[in-house]
Request: fold
Amino acid sequence: MTLTKVLITVKTYPNLSKKYDELVCTAGILEDGTWIRIYPIPFRKLDYDQKYKKYQWIEVDLEKNTSDYRPESYSIINRLFTQIKPLDIIGTENNWQHRKNILFQNKIYTNLTELITDAKSDKRVSLAIFKPTEVIKFIIEKDTNKYPEERIQTILGKRAQLSLFEEPKDFELVRKLPYKFSYQFKDEEGRISKLMIEDWEIGQLFWKYEDEELALKKVREQYEQNFIQNKDLYFFLGTTRKNHPKRSKNPFIIIGVFYPKKELQQKLF
Reply:
């Protein structure tokens, strides 16, 4: 067994897959700064000892996901999720400096056209750090609160074929978010774009409150008032498999937000 050490930086909100049931897309950084995507992972079904946090190192036995043409995509060998070993968590001391040292080994894109070009070229970039020149606004849009019935029935049918030892007792599908959340922003060329946010954190924050109006208020307070006004925002961008590379003019979505505090620059006299 050859273990790979990965710093987890991204966990997307769980989605339903006809092939794999309920899954979370996980992405992170290797020790040399290289991006890696680990998929599929049934995160909510993992044992407590295997449930890793964001900015936590893990060790895991990986192989290239040959069904995914994106170069960063890997999967756990033989789907042995029990061998995931969570290690140290990188904290936020000194305004996230340790996290910055690891993450910023990567190229930080500031031009969205350049990033999309790199995604559609032989580089096939599908994970990146992006620094917007200006975050214009946070957008909330109403969405359906139900998954497609056909997808649910397919998943339930597969579960019925599993033994009691293969499926956690009383496991319920994750609730679908009834809203879409997005950022509108400018890049260094003034290009204005709008990208959806599919980070686990935004879903957790929404479902923390039973009252829907209060939940939306809290999400807006965090992602609009706090993040835009007080934080030095970077986006973790990733492509969706179905849209990469040529099916969409812009195949990227926001799969995570990196938000250290803004640092005041001292004026020189």
The first strand starts at residue 3 and ends at 11.
